[in-house]
Amino acid sequence: MARQYIVGIDLGTTNTVVAYAPVDAPKGRAAITLFEIEQLVAPGQVAALPLLPSVRYHPLDGELPAADMRLPWPQDAGETQPVVFGQLARRLGAQVPGRMVASAKSWLSHTAVDRLAPTLPWGAAPDVAKVSPVAASASYLAYLRAAWNHKFPDSPLEQQDLVLTVPASFDEGARALTLAAARQAGLHQLRLLEEPQAVFYDWLFRHRGELAGELAHTRMVLVCDVGGGTTDLSLIKVELQDGQPHLTRIGVGNHVMLGGDNMDLALAHVAEAKMAQMAGTEPPRLSSGALSQLMERCRAAKEQLLAADAPGQAQVTLLGSGSRMIGGMRSVSLTKEEVGSVIVDGFFPLVASTERVQQARAGIVEFGLPYARDAAVTRHIADFLQQHASALQAAQEDGTAMPDTLLLNGGVFRAAALVQRLQDTLGNWRGAPLRLLHNDNPDVAVARGAVAYALALQGQAPRIDAGAARSYFLVLDEAEAKRGPKRGICILPRGSESGREILLADRTFALRLGQPVRFHVMTSNADGADAPPLPGELVELDDPKYVRLPPIATVLQGATSAGNKQETAVQLATALTEVGTLEMHCVNLTDASQRWLLEFDLRHDNAAGAGDKPEGAPSPQLTAAIDKIDRVFGKKAQQVTAKEVKQLRAQLEQLLGDREQWPTSLLRQLFDALWQRARGRHRSTEHERVWLNLAGYCLRPGFGHALDDWRLEQLWTLFESGVRHADDKQARAEWWTLWRRVAGGLGATEQLRLLDDFAFNLQTNKEGGDASATVVAGSDDDMLRLGASLERIPVAYKAEIGGWLLERIQAAPAVPAKDNTSASRYLWALGRIGARQPFHGSTHDVVPTEVVEGWLEAILALDWKKVESAAFAAVHLARMTDDRARDLPLALRERIVQRLLAINAPPATMTMVQQVVQLDQATERWILGESLPPGLKLIN
User: Fold this and answer.
1) Cβ proximity of 776 and 726 under 8 Å
2) Model confidence over 247-287: pLDDT tens digits?
3) Radius of gyration (Cα) for the chain, nearest Å?
4) Of 50, 61, 543, 782, whose CB is crowded by the most CB atoms within 10 A?
5) In angstroms, rounded to a whole number, what is the distance separating the alpha carbons of residues 255 and 233?
6) CA dist., res. 597 & res. 557, Å (int)
């Protein structure tokens, strides 16, 4: 079926909007229409509206009859439980805390979490169904598809010319996840367009008949799009050619998670403080769900009080929950002056053009999202303009490094006060007023602009020359060997046209086939003062403007069998696809038809540490170390004494230095050498002990390096076979030490399998029964350390283990600390299991605060002078995260601080309970039982 419509979709943080135009409209007569989206506006009541709130509400069982949730089309088969979309979802979310999914788009760019894991609503109760950020985004697109297909059954949405908008600052990972959401919704063919460009396309389309006059005195346009979740900046150069404006997008801003959500949160803090003041006592801090509910109320108040005809104040009401919905209701007033102070002065302060973004911690980190630490939008704009000062000066006749024209978008700019403040600030910087391009409807401009872009491709509207928003660089291996500055080769320059492949013909690379390989790519949106680097050009990458992308990690197979490892000469070919994403291929130098697609690792794109450098050619010391490993474990049996096997670790340290200082890249190369010789561990008891010890040490903590997933998959194949020398106590201990060390890289399924053996061994040790032939026996100490490392098991199991540990802590005799080793072990394990900040697990899998509060009450009842580890456990159970879903009540944390003061605990321990801090190496060692590889840090 031929495509009949061009459809633009703005999948916004706050609202989703759709616009469309006929494909075959006569030239110059195309009209863009908003699609009115049918949605629930009240129980059982459907209306068609231009804005679909980007939220979903998960109702309680029986909360709404099926008839009240019925839509004109069947519910999406992908939804296993009832879900409410539309205006009704937002209204219900403002009434009932903890059941509304919001800001899914912001989570797509949050690299410190698994964006494919079901985590939303963030901080919701265990009985609330959860979805991943990708699934939530897909559900909004699936809803649009159903609504469109209901209205246009002969023109299915999936068969139209689709343009989906994304922030210009979205990196390759976030863009790829957006495309994954679209595919999940059944929308497989579409293009991506940057949102600031879409805003300008909308303006261009509306003024297409008089552009020469409208832009006659414009040379540089700053597009500032402050949406619900991001501040998105772009610069567009205007040049007159034959009397007509020629438009080029020359710069985009960095990703700044700063928008309407932050403003609503700031107002919610004001309202929360007022509610506490009215109560006369110190009420408990609002839960994550209640704060989300209050934010919704403050959003409505913000829109009301920033409007042109705003009243003097607006009421903000927070309903109670459950049976106390009315009785627990609290109301406060927000005044017009308060909102102006918080929003205008707090987010758009008058700053100098030379100011840079402040990196000091700010107070707007909530809900597990890494909001911008500097909340001043104007300061982010100043920083952005300084990055592009050279291009700005070159475009201006007077050499001014400032834009002369401003185009604003986002619902916040409906407030005249914010528009005026931004105009005043930029005018002060420039020394003259900026021209403001009129945006008649900021809520829908992006969706309309997406259609205008597709029309421009057909020649029916003006077009912006854009190309790649940033340059991309392949990090070279030489930094590891020479210890010099980090260098890379430009593989795709900023501004490269979409759909045009660039082959780096002057650069040849050796590609390893049949074994793990990884590539590190960095990017920059401000990589050249006058022009971006050329393809193949060498560039130093130590400047902070170069940002690391997710690693490209894979095992590439050649024509030979998977087990036959080989190297082949290749060249790199890159392109900005028509969809709008980076595509990379390795092309065989002797057979150009043989190509290998390189894809980013999106699930674990935060795995490679910033200090982790790619491996170069093996050093003579490493080659000698692998020879030592081969002598002990290699295929060719050699005359190796038991003493020599035992001394292998010491021999490796003689060659490579203190093993505590071995970097992650070296450790993984050693593990790979051990794995290739894994069968050699069976030769004797000593062989098995040493192999298990070294393999676990070199793969610890199971992540932190590209392809660790692949390594863990290989290692897990050994688990069911167990140890060969099962009668040897040390071999069994090394077996469990191995799995404890690498537990951070194991998934929930594998950790549950370890939990089975954990429980079996503890029960067997308690009852004195015979060991199982299928389970490797382990001591209580081995099991405690293993169980405490299983952060991906269900919360209910963690709570059960914690309760069991607490019983043993309370039963331990009250003896001096130096003699109370059993209580110390149990307290260490309890501190790991109930930690507010997991080491490798997801933050949505932490033990609920109400459970941990009970544990802490029991720990507070202990004599901390006799049970020294009680303080350490309490600190980690009460550690601050700035996430309300995980942080304990202030009063309880203050009690812990007082107890710490009473025993003269180090000040650093008290700081951990009072504010968010990064752990030092000594604390890391205490938590994990050993140190991390150099360069690998615990993430806050």
Assistant:
1) yes
2) 998 888 887 888 888 898 899 889 988 888 876 665 567 77
3) 30
4) 782
5) 9
6) 11
